[in-house]
Amino acid sequence: MNIMCSWVIIWQFITGNLGNGFIVLVNIMDWVKRRKISSVDQILTALAISRTIVLWTAYIIVSIFSMYHDAEMTMKRVRINNLIWVISNHLSIWLATILSIFYFLKIANFSYSIFLYLRWRLTKVVSVTLLVSLFLLFVNILVTNIYIHIWMDHLKANVSYSYKLKNFTEIPRLLVLTNIMFTLIPFTVSTTMFFLLIFSLWKHLKKIKHITKCSRDASTTAHITALKTVFAFLLLYVIFTFSLFVQLWSYDFKEKKIFHYFYAVGIISFPSLHSCVLIMGNSKLRQTSLLVLSVLWCKIQRCVPLCL
C-alpha cells in the first residue's frame, strides 16, 4: 500500500507540475504576444503558480516526514514547513475561490440591484476578496505561531523524551485543525457561487423555453462550462478537506505511517488534478493543449519507423 501510494503521489506531482506549468507558459506567451492579459488569465496564472508551490511544498513535507520520526523533527523545521504550507495552500484555495466568484459575476443572469452593482465593480470585488483572504492568512499564521510558541514553552519546562513525543503529537493536531477551519471559509463561498450558478441556469432555461427549442445557446453553454469547472473544484475540495480530517484522525494511532501516504494522496490531488480541469474548461488552454498533443503525436509517429 505504501509503494502504491508513493507511485500515485509521484504521478500526481508530475501531472500537477506539467499542467500548472503549461497554464503559466501559455498565458505568459499570450501576454507577451498581445501586450495585455485578461483578468481571468491573471487569476489562472497566479493560481497555477501557487499550485506549483503547493505541490513542491507538499512533496517536500511528505518526504521529510517519511525520513524522520516525530521526535527527531526540530522546531525550526516544523515552523518553516508550516509557514510555507499555510501561505501557498491559503493562496491556492482563495485564488480558486476568486475564480468561482469571477465566473459567477460574469456568467450569471440576475436582475437584483446588488448583483448588478457587484458585476459593474467586478475588479473591486476581486480586489476586496483578495484583501480579505490576505487578512485571514495573517490571522492563520498568527494563530499557528501562537500554538508553536506554547509548544516550545512546554518542551522547555519538561525535557523527558516521553513528554516530548506526546506533546509533538498535539501540536500537528492543532495546526491541522486550524488549517481545516480556515479552509472551510472559502469552501462555503465557492459552494454558494455554485448553487447560485445553478439557480441562474435554471432561470435562464425557463426563460428561453418558450422562445426556442434549442437550449444550448451561448449563455447556456457558458453556464454549463462554468458549472463543470466549479463542480470539479468543489469535488476536489471535498477530497482535500476529507484528507485533512484523515490526517487529524491519524494522530490517534501509534502505527500511522500508512496514513501519511493515504492523506497525502488526497491533499496533493487537489492542486494536481484541478490544473487539468482548468485546462479543459478554458477554450484557449484546451485548444493549445490539443495542438501540442497533436504535434507530439505526429513526431512520435515519425520517430517510431526510424527506430524500427
From TrEMBL:
InterPro entries, A to Z: GPCR_Rhodpsn_7TM (IPR017452), TAS2R (IPR007960)
Secretion signal span: none
Keyword set includes Transmembrane: yes
A matching Pfam family: TAS2R
Membrane topology: Multi-pass membrane protein
Annotated ranges, domain G-protein coupled receptors family 1 profile: 19-246
CDD domains in UniProt: 7tm_TAS2R14-like
Keyword rRNA-binding: no
Main location: membrane
Keywords: G-protein coupled receptor, Membrane, Receptor, Sensory transduction, Taste, Transducer, Transmembrane, Transmembrane helix
Transmembrane segments: 6-32, 44-68, 83-105, 125-151, 171-202, 223-246, 258-280
Compartment(s) where it occurs, according to its Swiss-Prot or TrEMBL record: Membrane
Family under the similarity heading: Belongs to the G-protein coupled receptor T2R family.
Protein's name according to its UniProt entry: Taste receptor type 2
Gene behind the chain: LOC101999490
